[in-house]
Specification:
The protein is α+β, with helices and mostly antiparallel strands. The chain has 5 domains: 229 residues; 107 residues, Immunoglobulin-like (Sandwich), CATH 2.60.40.10; 237 residues, Alpha/Beta hydrolase fold, catalytic domain (Rossmann fold, 3-Layer(aba) Sandwich), CATH 3.40.50; 96 residues, no CATH class; 173 residues, Chitobiase/beta-hexosaminidase domain 2-like (Chitobiase, domain 2, 2-Layer Sandwich), CATH 3.30.379.10. The chain is 15% helix and 32% strand. The chain contains 15 helices and 53 strands. The strands form 11 sheets. Strands 1, 2, 3, 6, 8, 10, 11 and 13 form an 8-stranded antiparallel β-sheet that branches. Strand 32, helix 10 and strand 33 form a beta-alpha-beta unit. Helix 12 runs parallel beside helix 14. Bound molecules: 2-acetamido-2-deoxy-beta-D-glucopyranose (NAG) (5 copies). The site of one 2-acetamido-2-deoxy-beta-D-glucopyranose has 5 residues, from strand 24.
């Protein structure tokens, strides 16, 4: 059955793809949802889902607040539900709401709306924030099993555009703590279902609860979307059932990764094969080789890949090409072994279609876009798209153009790929690089999405260098780039320009927004009515790295051309005007930042990037030799030094009070003397002699340093007892990253260690979410495993105070959390709270561990939801939780804070409720 809804429409922080791609509506069968209300396994088990839903809502909530508050709010699902009860809600006339009934539509879509609420009245004074709302949805389903079948079954659940779901037996409420599974709220294409282990139910009957949360950023403004004041949640649920065998696996072809072949040669060195463990025990893939034709290609597995029951991983393979090929398929044989049963070994052959293309069509200047691949974070085969320079043979001497897409654009998916390729400006001399951003939303071009964009530039340089046919078109690996982007990608341009300014020559952000908190204000926050504002400030400091406006000093001397449609209904042009206005305040005499507003144009129009303005701007900077040295005066602002690069070669490494902004101000007087003043900076460096330009001496605070004495670069400066001195790089240690979200910026597979069944369940859900939202590889590791430090990448460690691994971690004293007489202490005092989430140093200076300590299942569920899988979840370095979170959100915290530079408790950036 074909659903009438093109799954990617309406996504948009901005990319309303309906307006992008009206002609692809008929293509939606490509991504058709199996909207089957009865599904059956081979053995005859089946699941019947009711079309009837009970709905309670709407309740005010701010974006991402459902990660703090219980997804069942205002209910406690461990108690019976009273369907006649009214609950306070300030959205409703009279101030109360109750339950109502909704039925799934013919098209399989569950449309939840509250037309009795006077939304227009609310938005008159609260704006878009007043349309954000939360609702609880409840339905039932029944599983029928053939009497003779003893096997277990598992449920495969796809929830699109809902934030969380849980499944409970229908017959009993007592002693059941719901486990919440994240939905695919962005409706990311090619997503895998959540694998649900069913709780016991005597009758085979279950109830299903969904947290339905309307977010403007995701679903759009109903007035422009549907010409109505009433926001409508459009939720799609798909349940499948699967018999579980002792050992088993299934290919997941939608997760495969393979690059194009250009003139017979692979345009990349990485291949990925999606494999799901469908059995009850763990499996490993430890060998891979090509079989049959085509000759001339070899693959090698990077390491043994262990897959937990129900988990999917993308097997990373290194591709080596010996000779040119014309083959149209690549057959790869994987060896799968069972972990429990050492005699279990199967060879499995996968056929990957090879797409051949050419860089340029013969005899003309017309070029093709090419899908390239590389290995991201030493673990995840990743596609990016490149468009060759229009002139054949060029590309070596001009900087590449890095172009960031809007939210919801999946560059690996044909209609989106074509759309985004055609949207690019014309260019004769440069390669244009279109990174994936991890996924169509990724982390809004922050964290791993930023890293992927910059890594794709290096990867293209290497692909070109590695083949004689392309070598003459290769640019330098460490080249700077011209950065452009639209919508979410426009915001990404502002983010990367302000956080990695030395990588950028010039930037053209179009239809970008300042930051998420400025796009939909957090006005409707529930926790704000209960929380100490000083705790709120500490929590929100974890969003400071996302505050692009606060980092604009770093782009004050960068050529910038902002463009915005004057009638943008999705990202108001106010955002670009405001950013440019801030730049003009920071550098009033410069004439570097320009703003073009295209009157009457909406969010997307075909010429927003493909326009003479962008073209002329790019051409002006492509051949300009970047000015040597630095401006006579400039400032570097940094909030999280682990996610910020240098400015003119000056780099901040650590802050005196992490969590607050740090600023380095350099002013030169024309005689080679520079005065350096700092706010909240503990340590900075100067990368090389070029960064000093023609300076002969520096005065930092009141200490003078003749630059002639600087022999070895980088030169590091550190502030000790109020006095600045130089120091060596070797004293650099691991710096705490100020926010838990940095765990996503991994240099390898994310290793998730669990101890206990509830922890394993959370580990599987986190691994699923890391793959869905960021295509990050995760390995789930049991309590018996050792050799932690060899693994590389970041760690997540989940356990109780009784878990040996947790005890060992606490005993090493990596942070201020310690074991004292068998209980947990923080800074020598008993740690309040029933679960704790905190960052801990990793085994290298650039890796981290996230520790989750729980006491019971409910406390683990609360802690697990704070894993910052999406932008805007305010979680600093450490948090202590209580059951109060379920009702009060962040106001239920018992403590939170940012570590000092030594990973210790720091009074000035902490809050505790038991002092
Ligand atoms: C799988 O292939 C390898 C050679 O690549 C062979 O040695 C092994 O016997 C095969 N295993 C099975 C179960 O066929
Ligand atoms: C981009 O602009 C060029 C020159 O103005 C034009 O020839 C081309 O058709 C445009 N591309 C698209 C997709 O509109
Ligand atoms: C500023 O730059 C714009 C565009 O490059 C140019 O048209 C304008 O004349 C410049 N203004 C000044 C005062 O230099
Ligand atoms: C650039 O965009 C503006 C505004 O949409 C449009 O009027 C103009 O024709 C475009 N120019 C080119 C060459 O595409
Ligand atoms: C939910 O209800 C159960 C059972 O009555 C109770 O033990 C638990 O504390 C409640 N949870 C919260 C957060 O109030």
């Amino acid at each position: 059955m074909v659903s009438l809804k093109y799954p990617q429409i309406a996504i948009g922080w901005f990319l309303t793809l309906l307006s992008y791609l009206p002609h692809v509506l008929c293509l939606n069968s490509l991504h058709t949802l199996q909207q089957a209300f009865t599904t059956m396994t081979a053995s005859g088990s089946k699941v019947d889902v009711s079309k009837k839903w009970d709905v309670l809502g709407p309740f005010p909530i701010h974006a991402r607040e459902q990660q703090y508050i219980s997804p069942a709010f205002p209910l406690n699902l461990s108690e019976p539900i009273d369907y006649n009860k009214l609950w306070p809600s300030s959205y409703a006339d009279g101030g109360n709401v109750g339950w109502k009934k909704v039925e799934v539509g013919e098209d399989g879509e569950l449309r939840v709306s509250f037309p009795d609420v006077r939304w227009k009245y609310l938005r008159n004074f609260q704006g878009w924030a007043a349309l954000q709302h939360h609702a609880v949805l409840r339905s039932t389903f029944k599983i029928h099993r053939p009497a003779a079948d003893e096997r277990k079954v598992r449920l495969l659940v796809q929830l699109r555009q809902g934030s969380y779901f849980t499944i409970l037996p229908a017959d009993s409420f007592s002693n059941i703590t719901p486990r919440w599974y994240a939905g695919n709220i962005y409706d990311i294409s090619g997503s895998l279902p959540q694998i649900v282990e069913l709780p016991l139910s005597r009758t085979g009957e279950y109830q299903l609860f969904i947290s339905g949360d309307y977010e403007i950023r995701l679903f759009g403004d109903p007035v422009t979307q549907e010409g109505s004041d009433v926001p409508v949640q459009k939720i799609i649920l798909d349940l499948q059932i699967e018999d579980i065998d002792e050992v088993g696996y299934a290919l997941e072809p939608a997760q495969n990764v393979i690059c194009d072949f250009v003139d017979g040669y692979a345009f990349g060195d990485s291949i990925g094969i999606g494999l799901r463990n469908t059995g009850e025990s763990w499996i490993s893939v430890d060998a891979a080789k090509t079989v049959g034709l085509p000759a001339g290609l070899e693959v090698q597995i990077l390491k043994t890949i262990r897959i937990a029951p129900g988990q999917t991983r993308v097997i990373p393979l290194k591709l080596r090409q010996l000779t040119r090929t014309e083959a149209t398929v690549l057959d790869i044989c994987l060896t799968v072994t069972g972990d429990q049963d050492s005699t279990y070994s199967k060879n499995l052959t996968v056929s990957l279609p090879i797409h051949h293309t050419t860089g340029w069509t013969t005899g003309s200047e017309s070029r093709n876009a090419v899908k390239a691949s590389f290995l991201f974070a030493n673990s995840s085969p990743t596609i990016f798209v490149v468009i060759p320079p229009r002139l054949r043979g060029k590309g070596q001497n001009a900087p590449p153009i890095l172009s960031l897409h809007g939210a919801g654009v999946d560059i690996t998916y044909e209609p989106h790929f074509d759309f985004w390729v055609e949207a690019q400006p014309q260019n004769d001399y440069s390669w244009i690089i279109l990174p994936a951003g991890r996924t169509s939303w990724g982390l809004d071009w922050h964290g791993p999405s930023t890293k992927e964009a910059l890594d794709a530039v290096e990867a293209l340089s290497e692909i070109l260098q590695s083949n004689d046919a392309w070598k003459h078109q290769a640019f330098r690996r460490d080249t700077k780039v011209i950065l452009i982007g639209h919508s979410n990608g426009g915001q990404g341009v502002w983010h990367i320009s302000t956080h990695y300014p030395d990588r950028i020559i010039a930037a053209a952000p179009t239809a970008g927004y300042i930051k998420s908190q400025a796009y939909i204000p957090l006005t409707e926050s529930r926790s704000a009515h209960f929380i100490d504002p000083s705790l709120r400030a500490i929590l929100e400091s974890s969003l400071t790295p996302d505050d692009n406006d606060l980092h604009l000093t770093n782009a004050a001397h960068l050529p910038i051309q902002a463009i915005h449609g004057g009638a943008d209904e999705n990202v108001p042009s106010f955002h670009s005007r405001e950013l440019i206005s801030v730049l003009k305040s920071l550098n009033p005499d410069g004439n570097l930042s320009h703003y073009q507003e295209d009157p009457g144009e909406k969010h997307w129009y075909n010429t927003v990037l493909n326009n003479t303005t962008v073209q002329d701007f790019i051409d002006a900077h492509i051949h300009s030799t970047a000015p040597q040295g630095h401006p006579s005066s400039f400032s570097l602002t940094v909030s999280n030094p682990t996610e910020a690069g240098p400015l003119y070669g000056w780099k901040i490494h650590s802050l005196t009070i992490p969590g607050r902004l740090g600023t380095l101000r350099i002013t030169t007087d024309g005689d080679g003397l520079a005065r350096v003043s700092t706010t909240n900076v503990l340590r900075f460096s100067i990368e090389d002699s070029k960064s000093l330009s023609s300076l002969t001496a520096l005065t930092i605070a009141s200490t003078s340093f003749p630059t002639g004495k600087f022999i070895d670069f980088p030169v590091h400066f550190v502030r000790e007892k109020g006095v600045w001195t130089t120091t060596t790089e070797s004293t650099l240690r691991s710096i705490p990253p100020t926010r838990i979200q940095t765990i996503l910026s991994t240099l390898g597979t994310i290793n998730i260690f669990f101890d206990g069944e509830p922890a394993l369940s959370l580990a599987k859900r986190l691994a699923h979410d890391l793959h869905l939202y960021h295509r990050l590889d995760a390995e789930i590791i049991g309590p018996a495993a050792t050799e932690d430090e060899e693994r590389g990448g970041n760690f997540v460690v989940i356990g109780t105070l009784q878990s040996p691994r947790i005890r060992r971690l606490l005993e090493t004293g990596g942070t201020s959390f310690n074991l004292r007489k068998g209980s947990l202490s923080l800074d020598e005092k008993e740690a309040a709270g029933d679960s704790h989430v905190f960052l801990h140093p990793g085994s290298t200076a650039t890796s981290y561990k996230l520790v989750i300590i729980y006491s019971d299942v409910a406390s683990l569920e609360r802690a697990g939801r704070l894993f910052p899988i999406r932008t805007g979840v305010a979680v600093p370095d450490w948090l202590s939780l209580s059951p109060g979170l379920d009702r009060l959100g962040a106001a239920g915290l018992r403590g939170a804070g940012v570590w000092d530079t030594n990973w210790r408790y720091q009074e000035s950036s902490s809050w505790l409720d038991n002092y």
